[in-house]
Amino acid sequence: MSSNEGAINNVLIYNFGATDPVQQTPGLFNFSNTQVYYDPTPVRDPQTGAITSDYTNASSTLLTVGAGAGQYTVNAATGVGQQTITLNPAFRVAPSGFLKFTEELFLPFASTLKA
């Protein structure tokens, strides 16, 4: 099924290290360096339709952050657990378009985990 309508004015909430995506308490991981990429024509698997390209695809662009002329805003550039990304209402994700989010995540405490 496909659509000829684009998505606008979306709010995306991420919880890093939490089991419930809508919980309001912090998760386990600190986050920083959020980057959002948009690709209007991602490479897709011809059999499954799954997107096989990533943010390095030639048609992918890094979106700008900030109020006003930015294409998205974040509630916090760094923090613990939860982050909200809001797309600017003037920015549209076209049908078949693809958003890719990258973050730097780290544990806010010394870990004794072993592989």
Could you explain the architecture of this structure?
- This protein is mainly beta.
- It has one domain (7-106).
- 0% of the residues lie in helices and 36% in strands.
- It has no helices and 9 strands.
- The strands form 3 sheets. Strands 3, 4, 6 and 9 form a 4-stranded antiparallel sheet that branches. The chain has a 3-stranded antiparallel sheet with strand order 2-7-5, with no helix packed on it.
- It is globular, with a radius of gyration of 16 Å.
Instruction: Compute the CA-based radius of gyration.
Output: 16 Å
Q: What percentage of amino acids are in beta strands?
A: 35-45%
Number of helices: 0
Average pLDDT: 82
Regions with pLDDT < 50 over 5+ consecutive residues? none
User: What share of residues is helical?
Assistant: under 10%
Q: Report the span from N to C terminus.
A: 42 Å
> How many strand units?
9
Quaternary class: single chain
Name the overall outline: globular
Number of domains: 1
Structural class: mainly beta
Instruction: Summarize the main sheet.
Output: 4 strands, antiparallel
Q: List the secondary-structure elements in sequence, H or E.
A: EEEEEEEEE
What descriptors fit this protein?
115 residues; mainly beta; four-stranded antiparallel beta sheet; three-stranded antiparallel beta sheet; 0% helix; globular
Summarize the helices and strands and which ones pair or pack:
Blueprint: E1 7-8, E2 11-15, E3 30-39, E4 61-62, E5 72-74, E6 79-80, E7 82-87, E8 92-93, E9 98-106
Antiparallel strand pairs: 1-8, 2-7, 3-4, 3-6, 3-9, 5-7
